[in-house]
Write a structure and sequence with these properties.
This protein is an alpha+beta fold. Helix content is about 45%, strand content about 15%. The chain is globular. The termini are far apart.
């Protein structure tokens, strides 16, 4: 099956009404036969083709529809290092991954599975889990694409940390092994058990032996648990002007845009709230209706998202009862030209559907909407909900290796929810052949990223593109 053959993830064992479902062993055997067409060794290595598109051309193309005055901030953040460049250049790797061999098996893919798109956040039951936490590019696609992006990010992170090449490659290899072994476990688990599987924070912490690292992580977890919207976020992000609260301006990262820049953004948002409300579960609508919309401002976030329409909305249920929602523009996934169009006409709905399918738990306020003029799709969620992101600075090789293995475990769990774990496990097998192939790809692609970064820096210095370095 070619990557473009379908935009739908086929159920793992959908059969006719009177057919007996195949057993995990039978599906695993079917997965093994896929090696005849695409040997596992063929997944290894990377070499750009002569007709590979110019990376600057693709990056400039990805700015279409972004706020032009914010694009230099995006490029400035990408200028910091090959590691930050990789974070903001998912469009380049999507085009490259489309030319790599795949087994033909598809899952709901993340689309941007670098290691900083994993982290901790709260479930609706107020437990903290470790999972994928950024799914802007999610789309049904070959499962290998996510794994290759994750392992490449590990090698690039290792170089950023100035680890040895052997240590960086070993960390990537261990991540592939973790993915393979956990997928083999999911292959023989009951469907409901896979669906209910979560990576609790305690399980995550057990993977780290460094006592100082554990102490720092536990401090951050305690801070996240103690953080409240009313005591922390509201004083930082909002202020009272007269009787009504308003989001504080902190340009260029938080600001109320002039009418010329985003015409009718606030009145249009009021109209869009009805669509968002309808996308929520009925019980959550009752909760949401307790809050009244008060203010909306642009908030620059991340690296790859900079320049898109990203807002924070302030809602109040009472004077001391605030709710901040992130309103994030959703464009077509970078995978779409190669994996097929989404089944959802609204890209906000695409993100929400993919998030609910891939994450073990999702924010109760997760929903989607569309601008009044129909030109922009958005998804919405709480701005912060005990979110804990990785800070790689200062990591040693053991920390990188352990963190990479946990990311790979979370990715395997996410893929097993939508894909056929037994067939995927059958294709990978029980030896290290597949691990070594993907590791080889990751090292080669880290070289490609380094080359693209140098090209990018030269383009900035020559004035072809503008980058603004933040102080």
């Amino acid at each position: 099956m070619s990557p473009r053959s379908s935009a739908r993830v086929k159920p793992a064992a959908r059969t006719g009404r009177n057919e007996t479902p195949l057993s995990p062993n039978e599906r695993r055997a079917e997965g093994k036969t896929l090696r005849d067409r695409v040997p596992r060794e063929d997944q290894g290595g990377w070499k750009p083709r002569k007709d590979r598109r110019d990376p600057i051309e693709l990056l400039v193309e990805s700015n279409k529809g972004r706020l032009p005055q914010l694009v230099p901030i995006r490029f400035g953040r990408m200028m910091q290092s090959p590691f930050t460049f990789f974070r903001g250049s998912a469009i380049l790797m999507a085009a490259d991954l489309a030319r790599t061999p795949t087994s033909g098996l598809r899952v709901q893919a993340c689309g941007d599975a670098h290691l900083l798109n994993f982290g901790g956040f709260a479930t609706p039951e107020r437990n903290i889990v470790f999972d994928i936490n950024d799914l802007d590019e999610t789309l049904p696609a070959p499962w290998e694409w996510d794994l290759k992006r994750l392992t490449a990010s590990i090698v690039i992170a290792g170089r950023h940390l100035e680890l040895s090449e052997n240590d960086s490659a070993r960390a990537a290899n261990r991540a592939v092994r973790s993915y393979r072994e956990h997928m083999a476990d999911y292959a023989f688990m009951r469907a409901l058990d896979v669906w209910y599987e979560k990576i609790a924070l305690d399980d995550f912490m057990k993977e780290f032996d460094d006592e100082k690292l554990r102490e720092r992580a536990e401090e951050r977890i305690a801070e996240a648990r103690a953080r409240s919207v009313v005591d922390h976020d509201f004083p930082k992000l909002a202020e009272h002007q007269g009787e009504l609260p308003r989001i504080k301006d902190n340009p260029p990262l938080i600001f109320h845009p002039p009418e010329k820049l985003v015409p009718g953004y606030k009145t249009g948002f009021s109209d869009a709230l009805g669509i968002y409300r309808d996308s929520l579960r009925e019980d959550v609508r009752v909760l949401f209706d307790r809050f009244q919309f008060r203010d909306l401002a642009i908030k620059v976030v991340g690296v790859g998202s900079v320049g898109t329409l990203c807002f924070i909305g302030l809602f109040m249920a009472a004077d001391n009862d605030p709710l901040f929602l992130q309103v994030k523009q959703a464009n077509a996934s970078v995978l779409e030209p190669y994996a097929g169009k989404s089944l959802h006409s609204n890209h906000g709905q695409r993100v929400v559907a993919g998030q609910r399918l891939m994450q073990s738990a999702s924010d109760i306020f997760l929903g989607w909407t569309r601008s009044k003029d129909g030109k922009h799709d958005f998804y919405m969620r709480q701005l912060r909900d005990m979110k804990i992101s990785a800070i790689v600075e200062g990591w040693d090789v053991d920390t990188l290796e352990n963190y990479g293995r946990m990311c790979a475990r979370a990715l395997a769990r996410a893929h097993a929810r939508s894909g056929d774990a037994a067939r995927i496990a059958g294709y990978m097998g029980s030896s290290e052949v597949f691990d070594e192939a993907i590791c080889e790809f990751a090292v080669d692609y880290a070289d490609q990223n380094q080359s693209d970064y140098r090209t990018f820096v030269k383009a900035v210095r020559k004035g072809q593109i503008k980058a603004q370095i933040e102080s």
